[in-house]
């Protein structure tokens, strides 16, 4: 599943403008040990920890992506509740959030399924 570069809303034509200088950070995504349908992504950006809690549409096996790449335009993109769609595959994971933030990474260990997922998630920072 391929995703395009992030965009920022808003020119006069009503179409999103491409982000001219996207930022990328490496972090981790781990399936929540207490829930088969939740995963937690964590990234360190400018001295703050940004956490995205994925509430998945279906259950998935335990997985970890220790080198998950978060691509975004501005840290303002990493706030609030966001819808997403994506794939948790046998060897990799890819997500696209509704504000065109993308998250992808190779799984540390393969899992037994290819799961198309969607849902909502919440950003928190500390």
Task: Give an overview in words.
Residues 9-18 have a biased composition (Basic and acidic residues). Residues 1-30 are annotated as: Disordered. This protein has no helices and 10 strands. With 126 residues, it is mainly β. The chain has a single domain (23-125), classed as Lipocalin (Beta Barrel), CATH 2.40.128. A hairpin with a 2-residue loop joins β4 and β5. Mean pLDDT is 88; it is low at 8-15.
Topology diagram in text:
Layout: E1 7-8, E2 17-18, E3 23-31, E4 38-45, E5 48-56, E6 64-72, E7 81-88, E8 92-97, E9 102-106, E10 115-125
Antiparallel strand pairs: 1-2, 3-4, 3-6, 4-5, 5-10, 6-9, 7-8, 7-10, 8-9
Main β-sheet, spatial strand arrangement: 3-4-5-10-7-8-9-6
Proper CATH architecture:
Beta Barrel
Residue runs with pLDDT of under 50 for 5 or more positions: 8-15
Q: What would you call the shape? A: globular
- Main sheet attributes: strand count, strand direction, barrel closure: 8 strands, antiparallel, barrel
What structural category do the secondary elements indicate? mainly beta
Mean pLDDT: 88
Rg computed from alpha carbons, rounded to a whole number of angstroms: 14 Å
> What is the total domain count?
1
Say how many strands there are: 10
Identify the CATH class: Mainly Beta
Could you tell me the CATH topology label. Answer: Lipocalin
Total of helices: 0
- The amount of helix comes to under 10%
Task: Give the percentage of residues in beta strands.
Answer: over 45%
- Terminal CA distance: 31 Å
Summarize the helix and strand pattern as letters: EEEEEEEEEE
Biased composition (Basic and acidic residues): 9-18
Region (Disordered): 1-30
